[in-house]
Amino acid sequence: MYPAPNFSRLKSYFFFLQPLVDQLGGTTYGYRVRTKFALFTSDAAVVAPPICYESIFGEFITRFVQKGAEVIFIMTNDGWWDNTAGHRQHADYARLRAIETRRSVIRSANMGTCCIINQRGDIGQKTVYGEAAAINVKAKKNKIITFYVKWGDFVGRISLFLTLLLLARALVFKWQG
Predict the structure, then answer these.
(1) pTM of the entire predicted model
(2) Digit-coded pLDDT (tens) for 45-74
(3) What's the rounded Cα separation, in Å, for the pair 100 and 151?
(4) Cβ pair 117, 105 in contact under 8 A
(5) Which of 8, 56, 98, 160 is the most exposed place for a label (fewest CB within 10 A)?
(6) Contact 125, 87 (CB under 8 A)
């Protein structure tokens, strides 16, 4: 696990920007790395609650699943994307999380795409950007731990290692010959 960054020194250098930051609103404590991976639990299900941009990081989501999440519920504010490809791409990341973890993903977005994504990544009950709508979903629970949840981006890391190894080999042959 990575340590949470300490921004106090940086804040002291840019103290004069504080009034501007305060007018932007949003957070009291600024940006930070989540250190607790609390789940919502009930008799019905154990739910992972990633918020907004946290959902694009696969290994971040696996921490919730490793703690016992059976369903993923993503809450996000896609209104600032406006009607660009950004909110659609953000929703597509949720599809990847469903496939990687084999968990149903329920996505709630103001102004963006609300939907349910099954464990294969198929989208159901998709809403339209900018239109007020409500959906009623039933998500299937799953407790199986996938290879990705257990090992993370193992294939990507091995590929990177092999690429660096082959690059080093090519450089050695170039210098020798």
Answers:
(1) 0.74
(2) 999 999 988 899 998 999 999 999 999 999
(3) 11
(4) yes
(5) 8
(6) no
Domain ranges of the chain: 8-145, 153-177
Q: Burial letters for 82-113: b for 16+ Cβ neighbours within 10 Å, e otherwise?
A: eeeeebeebbebbbbbbbbbbbbbbbebebbb
Q: Specify the amino acid at residue 74.
A: I
User: What's the CATH fold of domain 8-145?
Assistant: Nitrilase/N-carbamoyl-D-aminoacid amidohydrolase (3.60.110)
Cα distance between residue 149 and residue 63, in whole Å: 8
Identity at 168, one-letter amino acid code: A
Residue 110, beta-bridge partner list: 77
